[in-house]
Design goal:
about 25% strand, binds magnesium ion, about 400 residues, binds adenosine-5'-triphosphate, 18 strands, alpha+beta, single chain, D-amino Acid Aminotransferase, Chain A, domain 1
Length: about 400
Amino acid sequence: MHINTSEISKKLNLEEEIIKNAFEKRVISLNKYKNRKYIAFKKKLRHIERGTTLFLNDGMDVVMGYPKIRRALVLDPTLKKYFIDRVVVEEKLNGYNIRIVNIDNEILAITRGGRICPFTTKKVLKLLNMDILKDYPDIMLCGEMVGLNNPYVPNYYSEVDNTTYKDEYNIITENLGFYIFDVRNRETNMSLPIEEKNRLLEKYNIPHVKPLGIFKKEDVVEIKNIVMKLNSEKREGIVLKDPNMLVDPIKYTTHYTQYSDLSVAFKYLFDLGIDFMFSRLVREGYQSFEFKEGEKELEKRAMSIGKAIIYSMVESIKMVSRGELITEDFELYFDSEGDMDEFLNYLKELHITYVIKKREVLKNGAYRIEIGRVYSSTNDKIKGHLKGSLW
Ligand code: ATP
Ligand code: MG
């Protein structure tokens, strides 16, 4: 297909040579969703964020990528140094990032990588009233899809239990929900100030992350208390934002998150990168220091992290030794067989290897499937080592 790189160059204010080169190096991919063609930026390219999508329609509509959020390793003095005067603390939800947009009167859900996800697009249409995007087609609703029943980051959130089907004998609950955290202009990436954002989302009755508090940037003690409370509730962490969104947000996560990330990382130990593991370990060091832990608390943290690492790794080795396949499992609901097939094809396009573990038609005609994502390196390497291969 012919792609007009000169038009793309004008639209994005990026030299045509850079764009051509990026196509060649596959930094830009060409994709299709139904009859809609679009390109996606797999990496940041000059001022174009990773995950930016450009539609090859008449308007060449652009949806900018969601910017990276940098992390504070210590809250004090980072917040004082970084923010202007006040900080809004929002909960950081642990799901996957989605931008919802209206392109030529069609509502689409775009993932962090810049692809239109058929699963998410359909769920969003069921979960949310999208009048807001009809009234303001230039905005993107940036939010987190959370819950157990999604194909990317399955974590249970009690507040998103929805009954999908019920009769005398059965109740089926799908654990899935969506919370908006930013309202941005989809071409400029400019955010609405937090109060304005919340007012607008309330007006349209759209679920959004509610501020946990607004503080002076010196009030680190209060913010630390919020982190402790979230940790005890097994929640992920916080995102700190300037009330007017004039400086970029900062994130900070709980011990519980580091613990559960490490459990996952060591379960699939040869597939998740070493950087992933190392960065989580480092966070624990700074957190223990900042929270001024004594002997006992330090030991507790050490035990917890040690368990996350050793227990999951040994479990994986045992599984392979029994001849079992290590997979990460997802239980998903689809309204129809067509929807299910469409999504499975999408996974294939993304080169994600999976096996179907269960497949069932429910009485209301919906489909429930369990898919297992196969972590090939972990399976193959452990198998090899157990047969005597040297490292
Ligand atoms: P990054 O590229 O920003 O480092 P990451 O993939 O490492 O991203 P995270 O560590 O989860 O992701 O942190 C950033 C992500 O947190 C955002 O992309 C967004 O999906 C998610 N998030 C959850 N809650 C919020 C919130 N209240 N405000 C902003 N982002 C949030
Ligand atoms: Mg996340």
